[in-house]
Every structure is written in C-alpha cells, then in structure tokens.
Amino acid sequence: MVGVGDAPPILDFSAFYTGDTAAKKKLVDDVRSCCLHNGFFQITGHNVPLELQQGIMDWNKKFFDLSLEQKLEVSKDTSNTWNRGYELLKSQILEEGTLPELKEGLYIGDEISKSHPYFINKKLNSGPNMWPSTTTLPDVEDFSKTAMAYYYKVVDLAKDILKVLAQTLDLEESYFDEFAEGAVATMRLLHYPSQPPDSPQKLTRGIGAHTDFGTITILLQDKVAGLQVLDNQTKEWLDVAPTPGAFVVNLGNLMMRWSNDKYISNTHRVINQSGQERYSIPVFFSGNPDFVVECLPNCRAEGEEAKYKPITVEQAVLGGYADSYGRAERFKKDAAAKASKGLVAKGVAVA
User: Alpha helix locations (H) across the chain?
Assistant: First the structure.
C-alpha cells in the first residue's frame, strides 16, 4: 500500500510478463493504489533494455552540447508546423505566475511521412522527425536509429501499462486496445541547466507545477534529481530520486477525465538547484487522436452524471499546449512592452 507522504514506489513490472497469477494480481493492486493516491509510480522489470536507455540518454546529452545555432537548424518553430524538432530555452510556462521555464527540448515521435493520412489531415503532432544534418552531427544516423528504437520500445511498454490499468478498473485487459491502435505518442529529450544562484526561488522553475495533458507519461531520468510530486493529502512536495533502469510513470489529464476523477493526474514540477545539468526523456502517450474519451464503466454510480463531456484525444491535448505555450508568449510580449515603455520614458527612440 502507498502511504501518505511516500514518494512514488518502485514496482516490479516483470510480474505482468509471467504466468504467476498471484504476482500479477499484486502488481494490479499496487498500481491501483498508486492511481488512487498520487497517480505516480515507478517500474523496473520492464522490456526496455538498460543499454538502450543509456544509449538514448547519451544522445540526449550530445544533442544539447551542440551550439545554439546548430540546434536551431531543426527548430520546431521555423522548420515545421507539426511539433517536431528543437524547442528553445524559456519557451513554455506551465505554472501561472512563474518565469519562462529553464529547459530546452527536442520533440521526436513516430516517423509519419507526408503522404500519411495523419499528416495530410494535420493530426496531433504527426509528421516526419527533424534530425540534424551530417555536417552538424556526422553520426546522426546512429542518433536517429537509437532514438526510434527507444521510442518504439517505450510505446510498446505504454500499451502494456494500459492493460494493467484496465484491470485496476475491473475491465478486460484488452479494454484500451482500440484506443491504443494508431496512437500518437510524443517523446521529448529535455535538458535543464542548473538554476542560477541569484534567480528568484519562488518564480524560477525547470518545469512549473502542472499536470500532463495526455493519458500516461513514461519518464527516464538521468542521475541528477529535481523532479517533485505533490502529495495530495499533505500538500508537501516529494522528491523522486532517480533509480538506474527505472521508469517514472504517471497518469495524465485524459486518464483522470476518463475515470471521472477516480484516478489522479497529479501536479509535479522540476526544480534543478543541483549545480549540475539535468537530462530526462518523457514519452507522452496520448492515444488515437480521433478516439472519443468519455466516462469509463465502473467510474460513476447508476444514474449519476459524468463530470466531463466527451472529448477527442486531439482536442484535449491541443488545449493543454495552447494554454502553456500561449502563457509564455504573453509573458514575453508583456516584458517587451514594459521594456519599450521604459526606454520611451528615458527619451530613447524605439524602432
């Protein structure tokens, strides 16, 4: 059982792959307990090889060691409209009232060709990936090969986790299979510079306090801590210490909505005050973009109204993006306007 004030427990997911009925039932019970408590747990015993985890994390660091000019060659803001490629530092504000966040990222997903129906119909985050040129990164082929091998392994793991989640809700193991067919999942390589010592502590974040937009998130951390989860009962922030080989798993807003708030999409943040660079790799499993999410069986009493109206996966996730990126853009425009007014007040001409 998960206790109040406990950090997300580490569960042995290997029970899912065995014929041990008792071990599998214990895994389902433990996952259920986590979903009801803080919506977070960690897993070992999965099918993603440790060497593949290490390989993609090494590439994460190599990519962010490139110069800003080199990274901007694959900028998601100028290279495409389907949310693939490099994202600048301070591009997002997930927590209202904080400064733009101290993280930079690289968006990667399924290799969707421009002839694919998802691309043609401009579905959620669907299009070809943006890779550096061989001039910028001579061994980029190994980078893309490692990244895609890791991505597909984690997407498969997400589908296995969904089978466990179905059982925690007393549904058939295959209940979410249709939702997972043709699913969109987005991977972000992330780099967090250490927070400057003179930065305003209550305003500066690697990632501000937020909940995830999709269904489930599977996170790989490096050795540097910084991830914190809010305990719903004590309202204390719990540190999630990196564990070699383990994934941090959390539920997103869609799963909470789907379960009629029975399960928790919990608030979390990253504050890197370690003096070291932090790297992490989340994979956000959203689901089939056209799938309509509405209240699950067993998640409301007979005759009780669902708390949420039906919504497609795409509508729900795009709404979250619009809020967080729009917040950062408004902050920058306001800052520029204030700076301009200050210059005018001092008698400096502003073009």
Answer: 21-37, 50-64, 68-71, 76-79, 117-120, 140-168, 177-180, 253-258, 313-345
User: For residue 74, what is the DSSP state?
Assistant: G
For residue 303, the model assigns a pLDDT of: 85
List, for residues 339-348, the tens digit of each pLDDT value: 666 654 555 5
- Name the residue range of residue 255's domain: 46-345
Q: What is the DSSP string of 226-292?
A: -EEEE-TTT-PEEE----TT-EEEEE-HHHHHHTTTSS----EEE---SSS-EEEEEEEEEE-TTPE
Structural domains in the chain (count): 1
Distance CA 61, CA 327 (A): 28
Token pair of 21, please?
């009925």
Is 17 within a domain?
no
Structure-token match 């593949």, residue found: 52
Task: Give tens-digit pLDDT for 298-348.
Answer: 899 888 899 999 999 999 999 877 766 666 676 667 777 776 666 545 555
Q: Which residue has the tokens 């993280």?
A: 103
Residue 55 makes CB contacts below 8 A (sequence gap 6+) with 146, 150
What's 325's domain CATH number?
2.60.120.330
Distance CA 220, CA 147 (A): 13
Token pair, residue 275, equals: 């003096």
| Angle ∠(181,81,130) on CA atoms, nearest 5 | 80
pLDDT tens sequence across 187-196: 999 999 999 8
Both tokens of residue 301? 């009493």
DSSP 8-state assignment for residue 38: T
30 contacts: CB under 8 Å, gap ≥ 6: 2, 9, 11, 41
Structural domain includes residue 328: yes
| Token output for 32 | 């259920």
Instruction: Choose among 232, 268, 264: nearest CA to 248.
Output: 268
Angle at 222 between CA 218 and CA 227, to 5 degrees: 65
Contact at 8 Å (CB) between 216 and 250?
yes
